[in-house]
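Tokens for Acetyl-CoA acyltransferase. Go.
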Amino acid sequence: MNDAVIVDAVRTPVGKGKATGALAGVHPVDLHAHAIRALIDRTGIDPALVDDVISGAVGQIGEQSGNTARWAALAAGLPESVPAVTVDRQCGSSQQAVHFAAQGVMSGAYDVVIASGVESMSRIPIGSQAAGHDFLGPKVADLYPEGLVPQGISAELIAAKWGLTRTQLDEFATTSHQRAAAAWADGRFARDVAPLKELAQDESVRPSTTVDVLAGLKPAFYADHWATRFPEIGWHVTAGNSSPVNDGAAAVLITSSETARKLGLKPRARLHSFAVVGDDPLFMLTGVIPATAKVLGRAGLTLGDIDAFEVNEAFTSVVLAWQQETGAEEAKVNVNGGATAIGHPLGASGARLMTTLVSVLEQTGGRYGLQTMCEAGGLANATVIERL
């Protein structure tokens, strides 16, 4: 069986996902195409050699509908002969795109693949594709007669179950902003990011964030009916210790090492092991815990073998609960900041985290990196890579 390697990875800066955000005027197809084109230009690969473009997007409606990956590939200048497909595993969509691309290379079905993702949350608001629709159906409703909950309530339930305080959540968020700001100041994102004329750096990073500032924010998801149903909730989750809504895209070039050698390309990392799990849809965001255990088992590694972790900060309670359960060293987790600061453009985040993880391993000299992402519905992806 072939191996699968990451030749290069690139992302756009992440913009604020609101009408006043720097990337709000950029159509999602063009935003996505910018990352794909930057990847082609950086590697110098003949775009006609790309066997497929596999992309993630969550809001597959309106301007992000109609197999948006196909139009982004064409907008990026790839030939009409290059196919493309858009996948949806919610927040893990582009991480799943990386898995599918790597698995295709390993099986021999592909030689050269682009795995990518996009989300323009300023133009396609979160939840647009499901708004006004019963997407669960009566049989699923029967399985959960008390009803499922929004992700913010799941984040509150996690904080309550793992005994996390408001101060802990705010401290983690503050650290995320500090680390992201330092990474920009030190030039650690220079290789990762292909600026647009509208934006050169991540727009949501706030270097001035402090625990005291965050402490003044009100709980974001409190409602009387939720408080009645879940009296154990302490109401600690705020806009400040959650990821914002954002616009962004990212792309990863994946080949076999043999193909890379033939094309004169130098791989940066090997895609080592993959896992995907299902977990409790009520708590929804806890799948990162079993996913981490599963991917380590598949890799034949222990937690101590991992030199860097990228755990998506959809909510800080998710990462803190994951750390409690796994025992991961805080100093190895999201060392260049996470989604609380950088942002979480849903369908792009998996590829964005992978771009960051490859660079962090190179910057620290680490060998193995682990990425994991919680996803709506009680799902999670996990990936282990090895720096080359």
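The first helix runs from residue 28 to 43.
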